[in-house]
Amino acid sequence: MTTTSAETVLRRPARARAAAAGATARRKQGFQHGGWFVAPFLLLFALFVIWPLLRGVWLSLTDANISGDGARFVGLDNYREALDDPLMWDALGHSAFFTLLVVPCITVLAFLLAMLAHHIERGTWLWRLCFFLPFLLPSTVAGNLWQWLFNPGNGMVNHVFGLDTPWLTDKSYAMLAVVICTLWWTVGFSFLLYLAALQGIPAHLYEAARLDGANAWHRMVHITLPMLRNITGLVVALQILASLQVFDQAVVMMDFTTGPEDSTRTFVQYTLEQGFTSYRVGYASAISIIFFVLIAAVALGRMWLLRNREEGGR
């Protein structure tokens, strides 16, 4: 081996160490610069999410009232009381029943509206605007509008269809009225997700299917629906999380009451009643934590199913 070759071999580890040190320095420098951009978000996240959550956990272990004075540590007593509270379970049942009605209906309706808007050739922008516009309305506006439409005396729904249904005063129809209002008000968001997904399906797939003799039904079943599987999972997950937290429209439509025979009292409404009507902040915090655990379980379950589906498809 010549002298030049030996020096080159000896220099290689030093060059590798220098290159590694330089890469590490660049990563540290990039992290330092990027950290300044992320810091405001992390600060706001800690201030408005982490701290309230930790504060809520602490309050759930006390008998704190709305004034915040004289809070006494009671351990898990609030949680034991919540698990034995029939009103809490009734409110959770109402929220679950509402979710079971809304999620399938809004998923199917959003898909059908997206298919319609995607294939209409004239006035496409007008149809898309009409389908999405209700979602831009505040919840109080939507609730008051449908409260008037369902009015048993001069409401348009009973008048147009020739009905005499006590939508807002009978427990058999009250939750159904809230569901109808929610479908009209919130379907625009899921419609927009489906429409964007439909526009992302490659056109050559449909052209190849037509050449093979596939009709419209076969193209939808074998191309459209499989290509929309991920967006359908997203829509279902988002709607479950949103529906379990139903509050605004139900309260507004029932004139800030719990509806006929408490039939529309939801979990969120019951929590607010305990905190701001009964002034039991500690107990309200406990049932809020229980609700948070349920919501987190739903979200983690969806992530687990999605991961298993992706792994199974590989």
Determine the structural class based on helices, strands and strand pairing: mainly alpha
Strand content: under 5%
- Uncertain spans, ≥5 residues at pLDDT below 50? none
Spatial separation of the terminal alpha carbons: 51 Å
DSSP helical segment count: 13
One letter per element, helices H and strands E, the order comes to: HHHHHHHHHHHHH
Integer-rounded radius of gyration: 28 Å
Chain-averaged pLDDT: 87
What profile does the largest beta sheet have?
A: none
- Morphology call: globular
Task: Work out the helicity level.
Answer: over 70%
Strand tally is: 0
Could you please describe the fold and organization of this structure?
- The chain has 314 residues and is mostly helical.
- It is built from 13 helices and no strands.
- The longest helix is centred in the N-terminal third of the chain and has 58 residues, at 3-60.
Q: Secondary-structure map with pairings?
A:
Elements: H1 3-60, H2 77-83, H3 86-119, H4 124-132, H5 139-149, H6 156-161, H7 171-199, H8 203-211, H9 216-227, H10 229-244, H11 248-253, H12 267-276, H13 281-312
Helix pairs in contact: 1-13, 2-13, 3-4, 3-7, 3-10, 3-12, 5-7, 10-13, 12-13
Put the structure in a nutshell.
The chain has helices at 3-60, 77-83, 86-119, 124-132, 139-149, 156-161, 171-199, 203-211, 216-227, 229-244, 248-253, 267-276, 281-312.
Question: What are the main properties of this structure?
Answer:
single chain, 314 residues, mainly alpha, 13 helices, globular
